[in-house]
Each structure stands twice: as C-alpha cells, then as structure tokens.
Queue: 2 jobs
Job 1
Amino acid sequence: HHLTTSPAHQLFSTTFAPVKPKQFFIETYGCQMNVRDSETLAGELEALGYVAAEAASDADVIVLNTCSVRERPHHKVFSRLGELALLKRARPNLVLAVAGCMAQIVGDKIAQRAPYVDVILGPRNLGRFGPALAEVLADRGHVLVRDTAECLPEGLPVRRAPGFSAFVNVTYGCNNFCAYCVVPYARGREVSRQPAEIIDEIEQAVADGYHEVTLLGQNVNSYGSDLDSATDFADLLTLVDTILGLWRVRFTTSHPRDCSEKLLQVMASLPTVCEHLHLPLQAGGDDVLRRMGRGYSFADYRRTIARARELMPALAVTTDLMVGFPGESEADFEATLAAVREIRFDQAFMFKYDDRPGTAAADLPDKLSEVEKLRCLALLIELQNTIAREVNTAQLGQTFEVLVEGFDERHGDLLRGRTRQNKMMIFAGDPALVGELVHVRATEAFMWGFLGKQG
Ligand code: SAH
Ligand code: SF4
Ligand code: F3S
C-alpha cells in the first residue's frame, strides 16, 4: 500500500505541531467494584478523547477512586491528596477528582481539607463524571455529586483492564447494614441490573477477548429480589452459562444467610461456574455474629459449607474474617480460631475491626485496644497461613485446569495463571499459551498456590 502525501497535508503537518491528546491517570483503592468503576471512568475519559498516562505526573486529569471500608485507606488518600496538591500548584490546569466510597462518605471533609480537588463524585454517580469534568473545564469551579438514590445508567463506556478476565456488576449497593460496615452508606440500597443488560455486557466482553467473567455485587445471592422478573441469582448463572465463548464464571460476594440449596445445586451443575465459593464468615462466635447482624450462626455456616463440598468435591472455599469487634471476648476469638481449624479455608482475607463513623458498631461499648486487636490478627493470620499451605500441599500431584494470564513477575520466563479454584499456578510453557486453557500438574505447594508442570 503506497501512501501519497498531498501538498495540503504537507503544509498542515509542517506548520502545526501535532495535537497531543490529553492524558488521564486513575488510582484505584478498595474492592473489585471499585476496579470495575475505574474501568467506567477510564471509558468515559477515552470517550472524551483522553488517553491513559504512564504516570500521574504526566496526566491532565487525575482520579483517586477511593475506599472507605477501613481506616488505613482513608489516611492513604489524604496523604496522596497532599502530594497531588504540590503537582497542582506547579500545573494549575491539572484536574483532580475524588471518586468512590470516600467521596460519598467524607466528601465534605475532602472539600474542606483539600479545597483544590475539582470533582467529588459518589459511586452511584459515575455517569455524571463527563458532565462534571466539562463544568470544571468551563469555569474551573468545583463540582460535588453525591446521590446514593441515583441509579447508574446502562451503556456507560468501559475500558477494561487488559487480560482475559472481566468484572461485570449484577447488583449495586447493599441492604444488609452489617453493624461494622460502611458500604450501604457509601453505595446506597441494593439495585439489581436487568438480566438482559448483564448478558449484553458479558457478550461484549467475550467479543473483546475476555473468556472469564466475575459477577460482582455486595451480596450476589440476593440478586433479583427487586426485579419484576422472577430471575434469581441461580437463574442468572444458568443464563450466563449459555454464552458462547465464555469459559469461566466466578462471582463475589456471597452471603451465608442467602446462599441457598438451589444456588449450590446450580453451581455444581453448570460447566462454566468455577469450583470456588467466597463466603465471608466474619467471626466464629454466635454472639459476635448476632451483634454484627449477620443473620446466621456458625452451625448454619458449617451446614452450608458441608453441603457445598458434598455437591462439589473440588470446591475451594475462601472467606473474610474480622477480629476485635466491640465486646469480642477471648472465648469469642477462640471460636473464630476453632472455626478456621474446622472449615480449613483455602484462603482468607483477615482484618482487624476498625470503627467506621455512622455505623451501628461505632456506638457499641467495650472497644478493644489496637494492641489487643493486632495480637488476635497476628495469631489468626499465622493459623490460616499454615492451613492454606497444608490444604495446597495435600493437592500436590493433582492436575488443574489453568487459564493462562501472562508471565510471572518474579520468574519472567514462567507462565502464570489461575486454577478454577482461583489459585495461582506458575509453570514453564509456550508463550503462545497466554489466554488459553491448559492442564497443569501441581508439583510444589505454597500458601499462595502452586508451581506446576504442564501435561
Ligand atoms: N459485601 C461483602 C464485602 C464487604 S467489605 C461482604 O458482605 O462480605 C469486605 C470485608 O471488609 C468484609 O467482609 C469485612 O470482613 C471487612 N470489613 C468491613 N467493615 C470493616 C470494618 N469496619 N473494620 C474492619 N474490616 C471491615
Ligand atoms: Fe457490608 Fe454486610 Fe453489605 Fe457486606 S453484606 S457490604 S459486610 S453491609
Ligand atoms: Fe471499599 Fe467501597 Fe469497596 S468502601 S471495599 S470500595 S464498596
């Protein structure tokens, strides 16, 4: 193909410097919902002609997509804002936006402590990011949008992270109001997306080369309770399973109270649905569970796991655990340790309780000291790490289906992927296998997963 250059074009290209597109940079804190929300923010910015910057210092627009669930990310964001203030002083046209759960919960405090922030946008208001940006650019005023009653419009653009695994929301918000948790205040009441919209989004992702999908919601098990159609979460999985070219379906988070027999049976029967259940237990003591408002006892939890393992022998079970809830006694903490020993989780995310302003637990008496909470957390982590290593060691020699995601960071020549149980597998193989399903035998076990051999 021969390219001719017209005199007019020559004149254009020599007279004017090429227009450099404006750049954006997004920093994401918190959970998978925030990762997915950042993909929408990136999509909106690209639709406006922006391109992704390599570093924050190159960007014309910087977005912090924040998390409010614990104390530490709050501090991180405020100190990050301090750094960005210096950048903004050097480049006054830089646009700074704070999105996510902190924007919702402490938006006023951000506006006060960091008055140079241009846009403060709650998680329900992502669809208004473009207009807010336009307003800022037009008169450089500040825009604050926080309305948890608003619904996210369908069809917002998305720029997904590269790879083979896509996040797709099925519900927004949460109705549970667990005593410790800020999420219902940050993300509003639970709203289910229409099944057809979810299917459309997954089909588009598959067309774009994604072969695995993770369905997202704070409590996916209650999906559909607000819809006119009778589609519940198990029905939704059945619909999703039929999508051509979709190899794997995951979902998070399930709630022990709502994890039904029907759901477990459907999980077990559908070929795409991975043998992995993330079911946050939070605590092993019934008294603590009751005061958390979780709606199940440890006996209920044990029964659900036993049934799930009966239906899916290869199932991996992961969980969230919290130590130091107000009033938690040594016996309560022992109950959590005992639960961990009994269930033998494949993996656990473990936290020490933090007071979150506005939540019910913040007003409870008998708070534990930081030292005490940290002592419990360290003991819990040590126990769970040992168990995770033992669970994986017991699976040595087994062959797992692995979706190859790319190359391992530490051993650059080795491939890295995940088993259906969501465990990391690192092995030597042809680079052409990236993006493919392969079978790999586990040859060395670690807390985090396996080293393996193909075939
Ligand atoms: N919707 C999910 C996840 C919510 S946030 C669920 O219901 O499990 C993720 C985890 O953060 C929670 O499971 C909980 O273990 C932890 N978490 C929530 N609030 C917390 C707080 N105030 N202090 C410490 N950990 C908290
Ligand atoms: Fe928070 Fe409970 Fe809702 Fe999970 S289910 S987001 S822990 S209120
Ligand atoms: Fe954090 Fe909001 Fe997710 S508080 S954990 S980003 S829902």
Job 2
Amino acid sequence: MSLTAPLPWTRKDLTGIEDLEPGELETVFQHAENFKGTLTRSNKKLPSLRGRTIVNLFMEPSTRTRIAFEIAASRLSADVITITGNASSLVKGESLRDTAMNIQALNADMIIMRHSAAGSARYLGKTIDIPVVNAGDGAHEHPTQALLDAFTLREHLGKDLRGKKITILGDILFSRVARSNIWTLTKLGAEVTLAGPSTLVPRDFEKLGVKVSHELKPALADADAVMLLRIQHERQTSTHFPSLGEYTSMFGLNKFRAGYLKKDAIIMHPGPINRGVEIDSDLADSKRSVILEQVTNGIAVRMAVLYLCAATTGQPTEDA
Ligand code: CP
C-alpha cells in the first residue's frame, strides 16, 4: 500500500487535528516541504500573502509558537501584529467574541490564537468570517505542534510512519500536545504508547487507539522515537505525584534509561524543556535529540498552514 494521497485543503480554520483526514495532513506536509526548501535561500521572502494582515492573539505565554508564527507570516510577506495577555482589552472585561469581531472590523485577514479555554479556537472560527488558527487551547489541542512533530518524524523515520513506534512520556492528562499528537500519529498509522505515572496517564486513553504503559523500560525499549512532555503545573488543579524529585526519579529520562532505547531512536520534546526534571540536560543536547530541529520545522509547517487557510478565503494568494 502506498502513502495516503494529498487531499485538497478546504478548511477556513485549523482548530484541531481530530477532524482532519490523513490526506489533509499529507497536504500540509507537502506544502511544508516546499516552504522548507525556500528557507535556506538568501532571499527567504515569498509574495504569497502580500497585503494580508495576520493578528497573533496570545492569551497565554509562548516563545516557540508565537515567534514561529510571526516568522512564518513574515516569510510569506504578510503584516503581523501580536497582542499578548495583558495588552488586550480582554483584561477590561471585553468578551473573546467582541475582541475577535473588532479585530475583524479592523480588516485583519486571519487570527492565530492561544487561549486557556479548551474549544475557544473552534468557537471563534464559527463566530467570525476570517480564518482562525489554533496555537493551543487549554489542554485540548495544539495542532501545529503535532504537525511539526510529525514532519520531523518523517524526516528521521521516513515519510511512511505506518508501524513506527512512538512513545509519548510525561504529563499526558493535561497536555494539548499529547492529544494533537495522538490524533496525528494514529491517523498516519504509527503505533503510539503513552507512558508515565497512572495519575497522569489514565487507561481511558486506550479508547483513542493507543497503548498505555506505567512502566518505563518496555515503553522505551520498543520505540523508534520518544517524545517527552513537561509537567503542566499551570493546568493541574491537584497534586498528581508526591514531588517533582519523585517524578524525575521514576520517569525522568536520564542517560541510564536512555540505554533502554534502540540505538537509533530519536528524542523529541515540544518545549519548553525543564532540564533535570523530565530530561537530563546532557540528553537534551545529545546527538539523538531533535528538539531544536522541531523548533526550526515549526516555521515551514506554519507557513503551510497559513498559506492553505488563507487560500480558502477567495482572495488570491500569489504563487508560493
Ligand atoms: N511548544 C510550545 O508550544 O512552546 P511555546 O509555549 O513556547 O509556544
């Protein structure tokens, strides 16, 4: 059987991976590959979104996602305006809907939003006419993170991820990255194992077609890639393990435990990393770590998403 054929992109918004077809994922990857090729040219700017205005509305902290979206938009020649947490009138009591309606009334062509409320991006996409891209909504989804993770996996393990074994280790329960990766990787045919303490990796996740393991050794031994996740303190409302030190002693990836991995297995992390907690500093900087490659790939993948969503609005995009 061959790889899934790309499908035409018809979605105004990208609010999650759950509803996407494998062929739509393939379309994003193909565009991202093309865009990645342009990023090493001396003139990195493409005219595709010239004259468009993209508003980055980030109501939660971000380094990688926000900057990658800003660079992606700028590489496509769009004008970018970023509004963060306290700098918007949301803190004066304005509703999210009113904020977005006003941004639209100011002739913005697209909103990229990070928000603490699960479902907020989908709600906004249904509320306004311009495209909405989800840059993380609560513990729900972080679609562009999962797309860039899969794009990076394809570069290392081959374009066909069917049968590849990916272990996601850490705080799964509160992670939007884990949810979007589960959807993405299972749609691409990968075999996903979720690992970590039972309080953060409940058996319920098996309903999504993944394995759950509360033992580290077998979860690592089989993996072609291990994706580490940090503990999401900001979303936890109660204690899920006695202390960070105890988490690290049971589930932190250190040199000894990395010895359980296959020789060529890669180590991934969406960032921000907490050195010495979920991963040893030496491992984060080791040859098998692709953490910074993931960050770089975030530009090409987000260029693809911006380009595809913009193309559905009826305004012509200039040739990529
Ligand atoms: N991976 C990720 O979402 O990082 P930021 O929070 O820095 O955007």
